[in-house]
Write the structure tokens for this entry.
Amino acid sequence: MKRMVCRYLPATIIAAVALTTMAVGESPQEDVIRSTSSLPPGGLGAAIELGRELVHNTSRHPLTAAYVGAALNCTSCHLDDGTHPEAATFVGVAAAYPAWSPREGRVITLEDRVLNCFMRSENGVRPPNGGEASVAISAYITWLSEGAPIKMNPNRPLGPNAVKPLQIDPQPADPTRGADLYETHCAYCHAEDGAGSDDGPPVWGERSYNRGAGLSQNAKLASWLRVAMPLDDPTLTDREALDIAAYVNSHDRPGFVLEEHLGPLPEADVVD
Ligand code: HEC
Ligand code: HEC
């Protein structure tokens, strides 16, 4: 399926969605183009629109900026406003919740999952559960999941179209080879020092995701790179992606201590 480059179009015009109920390895069965004309009327439609705005401008929007520590928006990783079919898509995600979270040792809701990404991938703190930002983002993800059959995930907090794992053993990885590959394929957008440029956000250092984030694990970063980077030309092999991931994650980035990221939530609400 062709990559949808929604971020180059006014967001109010189109959100292109591959609504997939596919098993791993199959192609999407059904492509659904969702335009804002299919938004529900009234306050719900407005919340969905706000949610799309927040995932696109997370680090800048007044409702979310204070909860973000990294120079990253949700859509820095959930490409094309979460509609990219493979790069951590939001399509279908809502159908997997409530889901079991092994990390937290409890069942979590979609809102919990959204807020966890603020703490880890965004290196920030959790906005209030049930607050405007949290509800709007969850409404947007749920809208993108309409029509997907509900199938709560009893194993992991992940949707049916989650990034596919690598086909190779993640050990050992070769960060020295990764450095050469980074130089060739990545540095012109993300900079030699990983601090980012006008063409790509930081991939290590103080403004990057922290050590609690999924992408800080080499295997997860590699499986995402395989389908997402280089932007618009994701052609890395598993091995190349893994070596680059080992190089990227060998650099300094913010640490993760849960207590520093809980934000204004009652602590009893979060278990890790
Ligand atoms: C640095 C990259 C990055 C950023 C920024 C990021 N995420 Fe994620 N997110 C991921 C990855 C990677 C996964 C899949 C993690 C895994 O495989 O365990 C994920 C998973 C999720 C999931 C669960 C998906 C599923 O299939 O159940 C949700 C929901 C989510 N993110 C929402 C958000 C929201 C909302 C934001 C912004 C506040 C955000 N993420 C920011 C990388 C990121
Ligand atoms: C043409 C420019 C370009 C190239 C080349 C490129 N990226 Fe990106 N990358 C981006 C942009 C832009 C984003 C954010 C996507 C968005 O906002 O739509 C991004 C996002 C990312 C992210 C998630 C957000 C973050 O900064 O942590 C990672 C990790 C990443 N790229 C790593 C790489 C690696 C590794 C390579 C080389 C294999 C690479 N990129 C090549 C432009 C590029």
